[in-house]
Structure prediction request, 281 residues.
Amino acid sequence: MDIVRKQGVFDHLLMLEKAGTTGQEQKQDHMKELHAAILTLRTKKEQLFAETAALKNVKDKLDQGLPLEEEETDDFMQLEQFLLKSRLWQLKDLQTAYHLIGGYNLIESKQGKSVCVSFRTAFEGVHLETYNLEMDLTRTVQIRRHNIPPCVPLERLVKDHLQADFKTFLEILSLHLNALAGRKQQILLIKELIGTVEIIERNQLCNFLVFMCKIQEETEATVLCTLEYGDLTQCLPTRVTIESENKTLAESPQWKKNQVLLMESPVHSALLTMRKLGSIV
Prediction:
C-alpha cells in the first residue's frame, strides 16, 4: 500500500513539473510573438516617417514652384492621392454632421476626384429651394459648376474660405442660401397673408424691402416701412425705418413698439401681430 501511495505522489510531482515546463514554454513563445510584433511595428513606423518626410519635401517644392526630380514623381502621385483622400474624409465627416440638421448632402463622384454638394434650404420648417455645386478635389479645390443664385457672393466666399477651410466655406454658404430663401419666403407670406400691405420695392437679394401699411383709425393714412438686412446670413433686418406724413404717428409709442417688433420677428409675423393690435388694417 505504501509503495502504491509513493508511486502516486511521484506521478503527481511529475505532472506538476511537466505542467510548469509547458507553461514556461508557452510564456516564452508569447514573448517571442510580442517581440516580433514590436519589430514589425517599429519597421512600419520608420517606413511611415520616411514616406512622410518624402511627401513633405515634395509638397514644399510644389508650394515654392520648384521642379521635381525624376524619382520624386511617384511621391507626387502619392501626395495627390493622400490629399484627395484627406479631403474626402473631411467632407464625409461634414456630411454626417450636417445631414442631421438638414444643412447639405455630399455625393462622391468621378472615382472620388470630385464631390457634389446639395444645399437644402428651409424656413419655419418648410422645405424651399435646393442648390447644388460640384467641386473638383484634385490638386487645388475648384468649383466646376453650380446653380447658386448670382446675387449670393460666391466668388468672395471662394476666395476667402474655399482653399483654407472646407468646413467654413460650406457653413457660410449654407447660411447665405438659407437666409436668402427665408427672406424671399417672408415676402411671399406678406402677399398671401396680409393683402392690405403693399410691397413698394425689393431687390434680388431681398436685403432691402419697402412696403406700405394702411392705418386702422384713418383710412387715408399710411405708414412706409423700410427694412434693411445688413447681415446676409440672417433672416431678420438690422435696420427698420418708419415714415409717415403724420409725424406724430410715426413717433408714437405704439409705432416705436412696432419698429422693435419688425426688428425682432419675421416680417410677416410682425405684420400679423400689428394687425391684431389694431396698428394696421
About this structure: The first strand starts at residue 104 and ends at 109. The helical segments are 2-64, 73-101, 154-162, 166-193, 247-250, 253-264, 267-276.
